[in-house]
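Archive entry: two folds, one per protein. Generate the first.
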Amino acid sequence: MGNYRLVVFAAALAALSAQGAGEDGWEELFNGRDLAGWRVVGGEAKFSVEDGCIVGTGVPSNIGINTFVATEREFSDFDLKVEFLCESGNSGVQFRSADRECEYAPRRKVFGYQAEITSGGGATGRIYDEERRGYRHGVIWLDANTPKERAALAAESFVKGGWNEMRVRCEGPRLRTWLNGNLVADVLDDVDAKGFVALQVHVQRPPKAGEEFKPMRVRFRRVRVKELAAPRAAREAVPIDQQMARKAFDPKGDNELVEIVMDGRRVLRLNGMEIYDSANPAPAADAAGKNKEAK
């Protein structure tokens, strides 16, 4: 799960297990005609609109960064649904992400949470930390505790060469993903509280002499978001007992965080286990260096 500080809302009960439901309140982020409200950032891959879909196509590139088409808006607590068809290669759905200067100026590098997409379905829906805690920096998946049985069930639902649906839901520090309605990742991580949504085309190197270049292609449609009405204005961070929180957190099911305030004393219980007491607070996690994006 990694180091994290739990974000606590002022409400007496923060329903981390709420899953949202109806289609009411959903907003289309892609108009089906053009990329209005989006911008391309990162490498040299191309994005276009064809037949009501956002189409990402890889190109031979010596620039070692992935390419994204990102929303101009930022989102904090939300439910997101994206339909995708990954014809070949590797892709992903970024969320609560940002971009920064990099060695390929004036291009910028995207970093942040990513729900993985692969053309074969394996690992699709797992949460990766793009250009920060990822492969090059020692962390493969943020959802390292995802049960194998649950991941396998989701992978079995993947339609190879066809349309699939990715769902991402962020509520405070709780991040969840679904593939075709099947829960994949369920983690706690509070490095990013808000950021843009983006769709990825992975970088492709030029082919070797005599080899044919085969561009990665991925299509996206029905990109919908439903912002959640969490009382963000009243939240605060507290130094929870991380060891106890890891023990209490159930990656296989719903999790309930309860806040009890009495005579000025605040106690937090995760699934019935006490993870914070203002009368005897745990020391703050020394994770500042670990949680910054790699420069």
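Generate the second and append.
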Amino acid sequence: MGFFDKLKIGLSKTKKALLAPIEGLFSSFDKINDDFYEELLDILVSADVGVGVSTEIVDSFKKVVKEKKLKSASEAKKELMSIISEMIGESEGLNLTSNVSVILVIGVNGVGKTTSIGKIAKHLTTKGKKVMLAAADTFRAAAIDQLQVWADRSDVPLVKQSEGSDPAAVVFDAIGAAKKSGIDVLIIDTAGRLHNKKNLLDELAKINRIIDRELPGASRETLLVLDAVTGQNGVSQAKEFAKAANITGLVLTKLDGTAKGGIILAIKRELGIPVKFIGVGEGIDDMQPFSSTDFVSALFDAKKEVETTV
């Protein structure tokens, strides 16, 4: 099964929460009026698109319906899909152009951060990249052990020290090893201590200073991992982490386990941070670069068009 098919299956809960009610809305109303718009707004908010973004979608849809004088439900629904697609925007890939490029991965414990690192490492190796992992989450021994498991599964080397070691020292050693081994991409795991923003800020600043000094001019990505199941709480997490780090992209995990896939719209619109990877399963190949085109196509994969007049 290809990833697009997995994506369609993985988005089934979101489709049930978002697409099915929209289909029902278009088929149950004789015309588009204020009651229609109000119900559409409720549907979008329920799918965790967010109140602000949902309102923006409905307002844009109102404008299009009026300007184009839309009569059929199928035409109106296509316009709604187009509005949502435009809000998600174009996909953005990773910037990994230097000899040793760096991916710094952040996120609270329990969101699938370490698992995501392993899966991204596997994806990059299939693209011909030489990848190395660095276990800079030294706050928990379990984090180091778990990362070792994923390094083994992805068949990539891991640089680590003992629990309680200085994370910056781990990064220093990893950069040295990466240079010596001709590594293309160094992926660094970090501790997820959002509850203590000062420690997080200080730790990330120290790690970034090491990278600046040892790899001047290197391509850099700072990826925040979010659990899609948390919905709007994920947006709040992103806002807090953005205060401590220059986030370049998001990794959205567990889309297959939630009806809250609308969070992608909320994050993109409210924070302006692109989603770069999405996960829709437990398998090592079930995380792939985010494609806005595939996401919208999979989300709106209706079995039949509604042809009633609205």
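Annotation attached to the second fold: The CA atoms of residues 27 and 308 lie 6 Å apart. Residues 101-290 form a domain with the Rossmann fold fold (CATH 3.40.50.300).
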